[in-house]
């Protein structure tokens, strides 16, 4: 159109109406195009002229979508398919989808999107098409889309006839299991099968994933989805844990993170806890370590509020402080409050041993020496028979933690001594080597003193010889040592030998009967009372029963009574 300028003109429509308008005139077009505002009849006539042209080209949204679904341009078809998802009514949307033949398109992307849309808008009568495509379509992305579509349909039709829905559901689960168990199938298709199974029946999905994880050379995608699916099950088993645990050392950080998150589903399993501890303390990835720490915290809180039965009545476990309060205090900087909270935990025997261990063990590295030392003592008392949840796993974990502190020369001597004392309270034979090493090598006499006492608490006959050797090294067989530290060491060794009942120590112990220290003579009397009877021991005890010190005489008399 060639524009020649604006002009003002009047159009006479009838004798009564004359309308004025400013228009743009074209030489090639006889009709007048309105440029600005028009009024009255002229506007009406112009609109009628234009609308007549529009009406010839206009079509309903349904017809427009139908045309676009048949377009050769891929993007036009895909956009039309997306619009079908929100097209109402759904019956007409389905009709358009089927008539357009996009489900049979030669274009993979179109076919892929079409099956996705079928799942979104389809009804249960369409599910057979999805079943067929999920197994027989030549392209793996289309098969995966069909698998996803199966779950979409059930999500949309949950309120449908329950009986019919169950029949279709069983068939869908069976079909998806076949796909998942096909090791030759593409990983994307198997992944989609897991997701759809999980949506339909999560217990069946977990069962299938247990089998899946037993396959060799699985992709990272399948491992992650299988581990997650197992963790979502309400009925986790030892078998499922056995297939998940090996992946805790998988090279992929994301897989290890998934495992760390999943293991909280086995809160009472020692292997699961041990694996979480390793992931928390040893994994090179901070993300994995943080996830393991979070899982352990979840287990911890769950166990803290565990229910026990007393006289067949459920009684919730409680302490004077709420779990969250204790956590906040123990993670804080107030030394006094920390120590009070620790004492409360040690006293409350209804708090499970594992919970106590998890709450206290981090404090072995606390900034305050007093807090560290008290933490060692509390861990030692974790093995009390009255403590609920006491088991070999928790005791071993506590022993390992305390042995690590005892062997760390950078720790304060008071903390090392407390760690040695805690090991004695635990009375676990696995601590003997660490105690024997510290007894021989530690520079602090207080640490060596604690080691000697704790070795006696272990009551291992094999430790008698190492105690006697240590006594020799410490100068404990001197007639009257002036050094008060040696007096303390003498008491520790004699008490330890008495706890064990070392008959081989009879002569060395009796040699100290003439000590000027009443405390030493008292320990000798008590020690001899735990040894096998002999004439020499009998005479020594009679001698001590006449001692001028009342405590010594009483100890000897008690030992003699054991012989009667």
Keywords:
single chain, 564 residues, mainly alpha, Leucine-rich Repeat Variant, three-stranded antiparallel beta sheet, two-stranded antiparallel ribbon, 29 helices, rod-shaped
Count of separate DSSP helical elements: 29
What structural class results from the helix and strand content? mainly alpha
Unreliable spans? 1-57, 306-320
Radius of gyration from CA coordinates: 42 Å
Query: What is the CATH level 1 assignment of the domain at 65-271?
Result: Mainly Alpha
Envelope shape: rod-shaped
Percentage of β-strand residues: 5-15%
Query: How many β-strands, per DSSP?
Result: 5
Under CATH, the homologous superfamily of the domain at 65-271 reads Leucine-rich Repeat Variant
Question: Biggest sheet: strands, sense, closure?
Answer: 3 strands, antiparallel
Tell me what the CATH architecture of the domain at 65-271 is.
Answer: Alpha Horseshoe
Cross-sheet strand order for the largest sheet: 1-2-3
Report helical residue fraction.
55-70%
GO molecular function: lyase activity; oxidoreductase activity
Keywords: Lyase
InterPro entries: ARM-like (IPR011989), ARM-type_fold (IPR016024), PBS_lyase_HEAT (IPR004155)
Protein name: PBS lyase HEAT-like repeat domain protein isoform 1
Task: Tell me what you see in this structure.
This is PBS lyase HEAT-like repeat domain protein isoform 1. Pfam families: HEAT_2 (PF13646). GO terms for molecular function: lyase activity; oxidoreductase activity. The protein is mostly helical. Among the domains are: 3-57, no CATH class; 65-271, Leucine-rich Repeat Variant. It is 63% helix and 6% strand. The chain is built from 29 helices and 5 strands. It has helices spanning 40-57, 61-69, 74-84, 90-99, 108-121, 127-136, 140-156, 162-181, 187-200, 202-212, 220-231, 238-244, 253-262, 270-282, 286-304, 323-330, 335-347, 353-360, 369-380, 392-406, 413-426, 432-441, 445-458, 464-474, 484-500, 506-510, 518-528, 535-545, 550-563, and strands at 3-14, 17-26, 33-34, 307-310, 313-316. The strands form 2 sheets. A 3-stranded antiparallel β-sheet has the order 1-2-3. The chain has a two-stranded antiparallel ribbon with strand order 4-5. A hairpin with a 2-residue loop joins β4 (307-310) and β5 (313-316). α7 runs parallel beside α9 (187-200), α10 crosses α11 (220-231) and α21 (413-426) packs parallel to α23 (445-458). The longest helix has 20 residues, at 162-181. It is rod-shaped and about 120 Å long. The termini are far apart. Mean pLDDT is 83; it is low at 1-57 and 306-320.
């Amino acid at each position: 159109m060639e524009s020649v300028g604006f002009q003002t003109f009047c159009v006479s429509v009838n004798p009564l109406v004359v309308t004025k308008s400013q228009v743009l005139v074209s030489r090639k077009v006889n009709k007048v195009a309105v440029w600005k505002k028009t009024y009255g009849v002229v506007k009406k006539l112009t609109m009628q002229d234009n609308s007549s042209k529009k009406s010839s080209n206009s079509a309903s949204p349904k017809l427009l979508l139908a045309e676009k679904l048949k377009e050769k341009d891929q993007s036009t078809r895909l956009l039309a398919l997306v619009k079908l998802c929100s097209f109402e009514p759904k019956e007409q949307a389905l009709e358009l989808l089927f008539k357009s033949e996009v489900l049979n398109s030669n274009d993979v992307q179109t076919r892929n999107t079409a099956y996705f849309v079928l799942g979104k808008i389809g009804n249960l009568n369409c599910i057979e098409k999805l079943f067929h495509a999920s197994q027989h379509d030549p392209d793996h992305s289309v098969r995966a889309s069909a698998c996803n579509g199966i779950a979409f349909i059930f999500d949309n039709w949950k309120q449908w006839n329950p009986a019919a829905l169950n029949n279709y559901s069983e068939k869908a689960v069976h079909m998806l299991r076949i796909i998942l168990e096909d090791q030759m199938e593409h990983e994307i298709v198997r992944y989609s099968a897991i997701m759809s199974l999980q949506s339909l029946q999560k217990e069946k999905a977990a069962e299938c994933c247990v089998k899946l994880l037993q396959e060799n050379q699985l992709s990272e995608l399948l491992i992650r989805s299988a581990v997650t699916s197992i963790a979502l099950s309400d009925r986790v088993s030892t078998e499922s844990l056995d297939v998940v645990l090996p992946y805790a050392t998988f090279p992929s950080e994301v897989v290890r993170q998934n495992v760390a998150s999943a293991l909280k589903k086995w809160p009472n399993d020692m292997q699961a806890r041990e694996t979480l501890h390793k992931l928390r303390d040893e994994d090179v990835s901070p993300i994995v370590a943080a996830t393991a720490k979070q899982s352990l915290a979840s287990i911890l809180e769950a166990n803290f509020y565990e229910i026990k039965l007393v006289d067949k009545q459920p009684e919730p476990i409680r302490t004077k402080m709420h779990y969250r309060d204790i956590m906040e205090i123990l993670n804080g900087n107030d030394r006094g409050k920390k120590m009070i909270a620790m004492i409360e935990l040690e006293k409350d025997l209804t708090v499970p041993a594992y919970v106590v261990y998890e709450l206290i063990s981090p404090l072995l590295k606390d900034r305050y020496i007093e807090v560290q030392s008290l933490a060692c003592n509390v861990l030692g008392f974790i093995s009390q028979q009255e403590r609920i949840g006491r088991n070999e796993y928790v005791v071993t974990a506590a022993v390992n933690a305390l042995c690590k502190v005892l062997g760390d020369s950078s720790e304060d001597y008071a903390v090392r001594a407390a760690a040695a004392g805690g090991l004695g309270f635990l009375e676990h034979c696995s601590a003997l080597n660490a105690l024997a090493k510290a007894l021989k090598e530690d520079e602090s006499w207080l640490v060596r003193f604690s080691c000697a006492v704790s070795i006696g608490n272990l009551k291992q006959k094999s430790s008698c010889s190492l105690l006697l050797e240590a006594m020799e090294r410490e100068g404990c067989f001197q007639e009257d040592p002036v050094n008060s530290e040696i007096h303390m060491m003498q008491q520790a060794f004699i008490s330890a030998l008495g706890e064990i009942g070392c008959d081989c120590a009879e002569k060395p112990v009796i040699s100290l009967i003439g000590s000027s220290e009443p405390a030493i003579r008292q320990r000798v009397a008590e020690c001899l009372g735990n040894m096998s009877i002999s004439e020499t021991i009998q005479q020594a005890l009679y001698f001590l029963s006449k001692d001028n010190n009342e405590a010594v005489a009483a100890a000897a008399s008690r030992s003699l009574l054991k012989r009667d």
